[in-house]
Write a structure and sequence with these properties.
This is O-acetyl-ADP-ribose deacetylase. The chain has 173 residues and is an alpha/beta fold. Helix content is 39%, strand content 19%. It has five helices and six strands. The relative contact order is 0.22. The structure holds ligand AR6.
């Protein structure tokens, strides 16, 4: 799979899938979640409410991923994942690994060819960006692609993008 590291706003990407760093409620929040909901429009919140009413009455557990349409975004689908919250004691790297792995699996179920990830858990949820870069890149590098051909990490600033680019060089050799 081709991997790119980009600086910018993930809501502008036209990959088939944009991954959202959501919370268990799926009902929106700050950070990238807020940006995605603003850009996708109110139908995204309605779709998330419908998921809560039907398949996820207790919300989406940490480390799991679920898809909705992307509505007004250039992407086709939003895959919502719930990163671990370090501030609430969720420091098990397997939880973060699971976010990337389940998001990739959901994208494959959708027959997506491209996917964009933000730095899940590296903002409000307080994880060290180096750790997020390592885990995210390892999971994408370890993924056996079905339909997926391309993965992007879309970072909000050049400092974060530098961390991801250096980690990519280390891991991909
Ligand atoms: N495009 C790309 N990256 C962004 C964007 C954007 N438009 N906006 C922010 N980031 P965060 P978390 C970066 O806090 O740590 C929400 O309230 C940001 O700089 O969005 O997983 C949810 O509802 C950081 O590097 O997600 C949850 O309650 C990265 O995205 C909680 O925050 C992730 O930061 C999730 O916290």
């Amino acid at each position: 799979m081709q991997i790119t590291i980009a600086t910018g706003d993930i809501t502008t990407r036209d990959t088939d899938v944009v991954v959202n760093a959501a919370n268990s409620s799926l009902l929106g929040g700050g950070g990238v979640d807020g940006a995605i909901h603003r850009a996708a429009g109110p139908k995204l919140l309605a779709a998330c409410r419908e998921l809560r009413r039907t398949s996820l009455p207790q919300g989406l557990p940490t480390g799991r991923s679920v898809a909705t349409d992307a509505f007004d975004l250039p992407a086709r689908w939003v895959v919502h994942t719930v990163g671990p919250n370090a501030g609430a004691g969720e420091t098990d790297p397997e939880l973060l690994r699971s976010c990337f792995r389940t998001a990739l699996a959901v994208a494959e179920e959708l027959c997506a060819e491209s996917i964009s990830f933000p730095a899940v858990s590296a903002g409000i949820y307080g994880w060290d960006p180096e750790t997020v870069a390592g885990i995210g890149l390892q999971e994408v590098l370890a993924h056996t692609p079905g339909t997926l051909k391309r993965a992007e990490f879309v970072l909000f600033n050049d400092r974060l993008a530098g961390i991801f680019a250096r980690k990519h060089e280390q891991l991909a050799g």
